[in-house]
Amino acid sequence: MNTDDLYRILRTGHAQAQGVVDTIADPLLILDQALCVQAASRSFFETFGVDRYETIGKSIFELGNGQWDIPELRRLLLEVVPKAAAIVDFEVTHDFPGLGPRTMLLTARTLYQPDGGSHSVLLVIADVTEQQLRDAAKDLLFGELRHRMKNLLGVIQALAQQTTTEGRSAEQYRDDFIGRLGALIEAENHAFDEHQSTDLKHLCEHLLAPYCSDRRAVVAEGCAVELTPRQVMSLSMVLHEMATNAAKYGALSIRDGRVRIGWRTDEAGTNLTLTWAESGGPPVAEATAKGFGTTLIQATVEYSLRGRLELDYGADGLHAEIVIPLGSVAPRD
Fold first, then answer.
1. Same domain, 178 and 307
2. Both 148 and 186 in a single domain?
3. Is the separation of the CB atoms in 41 and 47 below 8 Å?
4. Are residues 121 and 136 in the same domain?
5. Within-domain flag for 331
6. What are 309's strand-pairing partners?
7. How far apart are alpha carbons 320 and 261 in whole angstroms?
8. Are 324 and 231 in contact (CB under 8 A)?
9. What is the pLDDT of residues 273-286, one digit of tens each?
């Protein structure tokens, strides 16, 4: 075999090896014993917006703006080669140039060689930012579902206890209870019907229907306010949650308690201020730790409706003020 043949074989082998590296979807680096980059995958260059001259031959701790220069990662990488150990899913959260805040999982293993004499490290970088956001959203959804089921059962129990039996037959009690329960089911369905489009007065009356029949909940007359389907969905969840809490702990938990909802808009019609006022209920106080319901209300107002929430735990009951933008100011996704 002459020199040209040997060179051709070596070049073909190198091209095949680089092809294997470039085929891997996640960014990949091959580091030498000094943790300098020997090779990098095409995905690495594309993901981080760098070229070979900025990468090959550089220490991993010098890449980019030093995002990999983490003391714990440095310690772990230095243990990979001498101990033939491995790093699996080491989490790095950083504001990467051109990418923004991202969460990366690093997996490093000693590059296998038959004679066991390898001092190179194979480093795979997986971007799990979107997956973590999806997982968090899924956890919130399941948490909300469990919370709403618990609250719904609690409200049904409260409705049964508050539907008076005095001077009524069993049939009358049954009809009254089933009527309230049916209204509660309608309110629950409305809270999750994101295709519903209606005005604010109709929304409030619909959600408080279980408590409006005996004037325990009053929807005050206010100016006409048209809501978008997304605003209806979000505000339904907020008002339903507040009514649920009132039925369990607040003014709607006793027969003489009352709730009044009112609203107004500013002169330009760009901001809505909605008030929720409880009276005649048991004394209330702000909890030392936020429950899921309060967290859900606050998150929905601030992030879904891009609004502001103020809660006042007065001696006569809870007073809440919700300010949300209307008109051309669209709520966040």
1. yes
2. yes
3. no
4. no
5. no
6. 322
7. 10
8. yes
9. 999 999 988 877 66
Instruction: Work out the angle between the directed axes of helices 170-191 and 129-162 (0-180°, nearest 10).
Output: 160
User: Which is nearest to 230 in space by CA: 126, 139, 307, 119?
Assistant: 307
77-81, 87-91, 117-121, 163-167: least confidently modelled range:
163-167
Which amino acid, one-letter code, is at 57? G
For 189, other C-beta atoms within 10 Å of its C-beta total 12
- pLDDT value for 287: 62
pLDDT score for 168:
72
Residues 162 and 225 in one domain: yes
Q: Residue 98 contacts by C-beta under 8 Å, 6 or more apart in sequence?
A: 48, 49
- The verdict on residue 136 lying in a domain is yes
Residues 165 and 284 in one domain: yes
Q: Is residue 332 part of a domain?
A: no
CB-count exposure of residue 137 (10 Å: 0-12, 13-18, 19+): exposed
Q: Domain span at residue 68?
A: 3-127
Say yes or no: 193 and 300 in one domain: yes
Query: For 306, left (φ over 0), alpha (ψ -120 to 50), or beta?
Result: left
- For residue 73, pLDDT over 50 is answered with yes
- Tell whether 122 and 169 lie within a shared domain: no
Residue 52 in contact with residue 63, Cβ under 8 Å? Answer: no
Token pair listed for 119: 């001092």
Query: Which of 83, 100, 102 lies closest to 92, judged by CA?
Result: 102
**pTM reported for the whole predicted model:** 0.47
CA distance 64 to 55: 9
